[in-house]
Design brief:
Aldehyde Oxidoreductase, domain 3; six-stranded parallel sheet; TIM Barrel; 44% helix; four-stranded antiparallel sheet; single chain; 19% strand
């Protein structure tokens, strides 16, 4: 937990350093160092709020004297026009913090909101929406947090947090059987082994060599249905590749356990929020 907090703090400090540099020329030139006031962060469209602790940290790093009143918590829905937080204190500090705070809130709320749309699209099925490693470099810890706020689940955080044997791994070794054998020899027995397949024959081979999870990569609905039926609920299955809001319900209704969606992080866009000095 401490390690995660330090990682997040480093991200926030780097963002502030990037934006402020040697100082806020505009605000400092206004000579308003003694002026007190407050500002509201307002949603300019409907969204799922994400990034409140990050916003608070950014405000505090600029000026520990700034105080935040949270009106809508992370993971909750905000309507267009809703104020999600109020920040009080020195006006110059609020203005200097503005862009970095909004950038984090806009990006993370975008991820949480899109994730929630995918989650709602498969409501009532047994499938779970999971993310991928297709994240913004150095922001993964925040983006995967936003996925959870949207109701999704996290896949591997990084290469050190799970085994997923893909086609290139098999090509490097020569066979799936040998790849699985080597992995089983070199990782703890508590680690599950997942393998990527692209056909029913691949899935049958994977089952024969004793994997724990089957990831169906860019397969048609018909092909995925065959794999799920072959696994007969005994092996966990995951669908991946070209998952959209239009087809995710069809995939979920096949009975897959997990549906990984790269779009929720790499193509979510940002939601529109603004900071208004009152």
């Amino acid at each position: 937990m401490i390690e995660k907090k330090l990682a997040v703090k480093e991200i926030v400090l780097n963002a502030l350093k990037e934006d402020i540099g040697a100082g806020d020329l505009t605000t400092e030139s206004l000579s308003i160092a003694d002026k007190e006031g407050f500002a509201e962060v307002v949603a300019k469209e409907d969204l799922i709020v994400a990034g409140i602790p990050i916003a608070k940290m950014a405000f505090s790093e600029v000026d520990p004297g700034l105080g935040c009143e949270i009106l809508i918590e992370d993971g909750a829905a905000a309507k267009k026009g809703d104020a999600i937080l109020v920040v009080k204190g020195r006006v110059n500090s609020i203005l200097t913090s503005e862009r970095v705070v909004l950038n984090f809130l806009m990006r993370l709320s975008g991820i949480a909101t899109l994730t929630n749309r995918y989650v709602e699209a498969i409501k009532g099925t047994k499938s779970k929406v999971v993310d991928t490693r297709k994240t913004t470099p150095c922001l993964r810890i925040l983006e995967k947090y936003a996925v959870r706020l949207g109701g999704g689940f996290n896949h591997r955080f990084g290469l050190d947090s799970g085994v997923l044997i893909k086609n290139n791994h098999i090509a490097a070794i020569g066979s799936l059987k040998e790849a699985v054998c080597r992995v089983r020899t070199n990782v703890p027995h508590t680690v599950k082994v997942e393998v990527e397949v692209r056909s029913l024959d691949d899935a049958k081979h994977a089952v024969e060599v004793g994997v724990d999870l089957i990831l169906m990569d860019n397969m048609s609905l018909e092909e995925m249905a065959q794999v799920v039926d072959y696994c007969d609920w005994e092996l966990l299955t995951e669908a991946s590749g070209n998952v959209t809001l239009e087809n995710i319900r069809h995939i979920a209704e096949l009975g897959v356990n997990y549906i990984s969606v790269g779009r929720i992080t790499h193509s979510s866009g940002s939601k529109d929020l603004a900071l208004y000095l009152r």
